[in-house]
Design goal:
By secondary structure, the chain is mainly beta. It has helices at residues 53-60, 107-112, 125-136, 167-177, and strands at 7-13, 16-19, 29-36, 43-49, 66-73, 76-93, 96-104, 114-119, 161-166, 181-185, 188-192, 204-205, 211-222, 225-235, 245-249, 254-267, 273-281. Strands 1, 2, 3, 4, 5, 6, 7, 12, 13, 14, 15, 16 and 17 form a 13-stranded mixed sheet that branches. A two-stranded antiparallel sheet has the order 8-9. A two-stranded antiparallel ribbon has the order 10-11.
């Protein structure tokens, strides 16, 4: 898995598709995708080297279009970013010409998605949730999967409620009132439990599954409270994202952690094809 052979990617910018299967010697693509578990848009920067001038001009002329990046290995490729095109620029650094594309995860929806809707007393919480998720214009993500957990303490509205404002803010307020939180991950709504994790088990990270070196266990004091953090690196796992619970098994650490931040980065013509992650023990 440490070899370059077997790496794959697919990059879509509007109606332009660039992928590792294009030809025998595919274009060089380098990327960095940083994500956390807040509702603030995640960021991606992608460099495409030595495109045909006509293709560069075509991409540079695109309006606010979707940008999607999938990456991984031949048997495990997945989406690591889906967002809106934020900017395009050309970098002339001999001998290469790179088109630098940046995007924000759900950024266009954050600015435009609004909701104006009322629900009567007795409306099922699941119906309220799904309507608010729909209003964000994001993918439903795991919204439907967490519905049964809303039955704790009643599964209907005790009083009528009206939402009138930005869909992201209204969804946040509603979920907080139910003991949940959410973030936008690769264009989808990802709802987390009270402890900040996505329901269900996450991946196992060990030397056999791509963990690199030994993760570090650090401590920091925040508002007088000592918080532990686990910082590590692994081979590019597309589904490692903030909010999930991952099992770490290394020489010094054997624990389950809640992923707080990730940085997926790679270079199809270089050594980098990794994920840096930060989490806290559960």
């Amino acid at each position: 898995m440490t070899e370059q052979r077997g790496r794959e990617y697919r990059l879509t910018v509007g109606d332009v598709l660039i992928e590792s299967a294009d030809n025998v010697d595919p274009l060089r693509v380098a990327f960095s995708v940083e994500r956390d578990k807040t509702s603030t848009p995640n960021n991606a920067q992608i460099a495409i080297f030595n495109l045909a001038p006509s293709t560069r001009e075509r991409i540079a002329a695109l309006p606010l279009v979707p940008v999607q990046l999938e990456a991984g290995y031949r048997d495990s490729i997945g989406r690591i970013f889906l967002g809106a095109l934020r900017s395009v620029r050309v970098d002339h650094t001999p001998p290469d010409v790179a088109l630098i594309v940046s995007g924000g995860d759900g950024e266009d929806k954050l600015q435009t998605a609004v909701v104006k809707k009322s629900f009567a007393r007795g409306t099922k919480l699941v119906d309220v949730l799904l309507q608010l998720v729909k209003a964000t214009k994001l993918g439903v993500g795991n919204s439907k999967k967490i519905v049964p957990s809303f039955t704790n303490g009643g599964d209907t509205l005790a009083h009528g409620i009206t939402f009138d404002g930005g869909a992201f803010d209204e969804l946040s307020a509603f979920l907080r009132s139910c003991g949940y939180d959410w973030s936008c991950q690769s264009g989808d709504v990802q709802i987390t439990q009270i402890d900040g994790t996505v329901p269900g088990s996450g991946p196992l990270l060990s030397a056999d599954t791509g963990l690199i070196g030994t993760p570090e266990l650090t401590q920091e004091i925040e508002n007088g409270v000592t918080k532990k953090r686990v910082v590590g690196k692994c081979l590019l796992v597309p589904y490692l994202r903030p909010g999930i619970a991952a099992k770490i098994r290394s020489e010094k650490i054997d624990a389950t952690i809640k992923i707080l931040k990730t940085k997926h980065y790679g270079d199809t013509h270089g050594q980098e094809w990794y994920v840096d992650f930060e989490g806290e023990p559960l």
